[in-house]
């Protein structure tokens, strides 16, 4: 009897361990099997894309951007649309990490728990996804950016719907260039610059510095200054683009006076500047629809006095993700509270819906309503009296700020413009970056203007 008991104990333990392992496996199978099945290194898919029976990806108007037919993944018949939407839709590979086809592969692939991916052909059909983008606005962005590298974002600052999320360089997912890895023209082509890149924000950052001043003192916009074309801070020069003469904060933003905002930065101090930058999304990654943006950086802890002064005009080591710029601009348009963007308007699967909402960022108050109103007045003044409202966009009433961010000593600069429309029927915030465009006014504004005109047509047609 004693012998039997001593032998049965290990058997009991082994049996328990077996069932514990089985339960663990079953739970994992149910929760993760669809992901395992569509992993690109799954041997069963080695000669396939896993997208042969995937559902459709459509734009806001129902234009089909990607679909599967006869065991093949196909894309919109218009090559320009294919290239314009590449970074949002993705291609057959998983190289573009923030693309819908990469992030929602298992949902699109038509994985079925009973049949796995080996489902009978007659039953195969993945879930469809409808996006918020308009492929015609994407086309306008592709044309507007031309041969430049860059990114364009336009989104509704009331609903969050992204109308345009474009990035260049791009390529045709149906005829992927063979020299993509070696040809310099395609460098960084897998990157969606709108959400995954960061750049010096240049003068667009003056909005953050102005915000810091207005949050401290609501009358700060009256601060006067005599610009002589530059000033000396920390023993070195801070130069202006022009001699602005006697100006207040309205004039300083309109003429983009570096000396004004550099001196204001030093007056405010590192703590106040850092705190406002953080309120405006610096130091944080935004999350929406499965996308996580690059982190924007404002760190003046090691800056000397002159470098700190430059940080307030968006130079020094300040870096910003284009999506962060669009989001902080949405807060100015929206009474101080930012709006979280959305790329997906409808999807079939509840599993994907969970992935979509996991960790999604929440709207935040970035500044007081009073400060937002004052910044809006200043951007309206800059647009009307310096850029020209028709030059910005004939179809919409735009408030804006440009930036020309120097990236090397030879004067090469990135060209930015950010802003928003005040039209009730088209409440759009935007940010456009043209790499090495050298002038926010001459290069970034015309690009943004063409995209915004297309956006107005999209809303009003
Ligand atoms: Zn100046």
Question: Could you explain the architecture of this structure?
Answer:
It is a single chain. This protein is α+β, with helices and mostly antiparallel strands. The protein has a domain at 151-344 and 361-460: 3-Layer(aba) Sandwich (Beta-lactamase), CATH 3.40.710.10. The chain contains 16 helices and 16 strands. The chain has helices at 2-38, 79-89, 100-103, 105-108, 135-145, 193-196, 206-216, 249-254, 258-268, 270-279, 305-311, 322-333, 350-357, 369-387, 389-392, 440-460, and strands spanning 57-58, 64-69, 72-75, 129-131, 150-156, 162-168, 225-227, 230-233, 236-239, 245-247, 287-288, 291-292, 344-347, 398-406, 413-421, 428-434. The protein has a 5-stranded mixed sheet with strand order 3-2-1-4-13. Helix 2 crosses helix 5 (135-145) and helix 5 packs antiparallel against helix 16. The termini are far apart. The structure holds zinc ion (ZN). Zinc ion binds next to helix 9.
